[in-house]
Design a protein that fits this description.
It is a single chain. The chain has about 170 residues and is an alpha/beta fold. The chain has a single domain (about 30-165), classed as Rossmann fold, CATH 3.40.50. It has 7 helices and 5 strands. It has helices spanning about 5-25, 30-40, 50-65, 75-80, 100-110, 130-135, 150-165, and strands at about 45-50, 70, 90, 120-125, 140-145. Helix 3 (about 50-65) links the parallel strand 1 and strand 2. The chain is elongated, with a radius of gyration of 23 Å. The model has no long low-confidence stretch (mean pLDDT about 90).
Length: about 170
């Protein structure tokens, strides 16, 4: 017949067995953990780009990496994609029709919920004055077209990490 355990001994044995089993599990690399978390909690990007082929390219690039996307061709389409679901980063073209990217950025930065969201201009217009204006409006980065896909992905990833750490 087995010995009867008191509560203290039972708890001690359970803790010892649990620790031993946890210690025997393979260690998960931090990068693997982050990738798994990214898939469970995907970030949402808002892409505002009037050029159809560039919009499609950005969609392919970021959808393949597991991001959720909201897409607008210009400011007039924004009302169709803005809802209560969170946006984690905005990619914005400068040369938009009707309301250009700079004007739209200013409006976005005045919005109570959107002003703190990282903003990246992605544009073929990249004069020094354009870049200065973008940063003066609160942009977090300015990527010139044509861009290196890996660098753009790294920029987005880095800004999302920094934003997560600050909130």
């Amino acid at each position: 017949m087995s010995k009867r355990l008191n509560t203290k001994d039972l708890v001690g044995k359970i803790e010892k067995m649990t620790k031993a089993r946890i210690a025997s599990q393979p260690v998960v690399a931090l990068d693997d953990f982050r990738e798994a978390k990214k898939k469970l909690e995907p970030k949402t990007l808002l892409i505002i780009e009037d050029d159809e082929s560039m919009r499609a390219a950005l969609q392919r690039i970021f959808k393949a990496d597991g991001y959720l996307l909201k897409i607008a061709a210009d400011a007039t389409e924004l009302s169709q994609v803005l809802d209560d679901s969170p946006i984690d980063l905005i990619l914005l073209d400068v040369g938009l029709p009707w309301i250009n990217g700079f004007e739209l950025a200013q409006l976005l930065k005045e919005h109570k919920d959107l002003k703190a969201i990282p903003l990246v201009f992605v544009s073929g217009n990249a004069s020094d004055d354009d870049v200065k204006q973008a940063f003066s409006l609160g942009a977090d980065d300015f990527v010139k077209k044509p861009f290196d896909v890996d660098k753009l992905k790294k920029t987005v990833s880095t800004l999302l990490k920094l934003h997560d750490q600050s909130t």
